[in-house]
Structure to design on (180 residues):
């Protein structure tokens, strides 16, 4: 019998949701019995071989590259779960939404306290183009489920994934909500 495939990706965020996934500790062995881990920064697999059953995405979209990655991820996941505050709302990276992108870049590279004299805003074509603001995932693609938290606890991720694997729509108990 084929095991369900699970993939993960990280966009604009801190990677804390992936760290929480790793924090399920010895249950990782149980998880590997239940799923095949496909494309993920955890195994450094870069491309999809086929459509996966469940995709977990953390982080919001702050660049054109993030949008491209998220759209490709959506295309390759039957069920897509936005994991954590950055994926759900833009999180901490979206603090820059309060000012214009130009002001943000000028503060970082030409006017702020950490700029280098004569500093210029990077304009290398190899750098991803920043968007006008940071977007939560659901504003870019269809999201099937939302797992809140900053980051969600290991127990919340375990509960959520095992509920999905059992064919149920997860209803996260309030005791598993975590905002640190």
């Amino acid at each position: 019998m084929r095991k369900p495939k699970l993939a993960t990706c990280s966009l604009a965020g801190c990677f804390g949701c992936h760290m929480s996934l790793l924090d399920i500790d010895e249950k990782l062995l149980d998880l590997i019995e239940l799923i095949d881990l496909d494309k993920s920064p955890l195994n450094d697999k870069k491309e999809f071989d086929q459509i996966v059953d469940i995709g977990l995405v953390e982080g919001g979209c702050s660049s054109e590259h993030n949008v491209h990655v998220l759209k490709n991820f959506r295309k390759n996941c039957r069920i897509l779960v936005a994991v954590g505050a950055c994926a759900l709302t833009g999180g901490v990276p979206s603090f820059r939404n309060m000012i214009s992108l130009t002001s943000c870049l000028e503060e970082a590279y030409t006017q702020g306290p950490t700029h280098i004299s004569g500093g210029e805003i990077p304009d290398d074509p190899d750098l991803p183009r920043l968007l006008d603001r940071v977007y939560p995932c659901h504003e870019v693609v269809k999201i099937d489920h939302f797992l809140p938290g900053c980051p969600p606890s290991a127990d919340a991720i375990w509960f959520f994934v095992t509920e999905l694997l059992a064919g149920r729509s997860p209803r996260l108990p309030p005791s598993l909500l975590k905002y640190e």
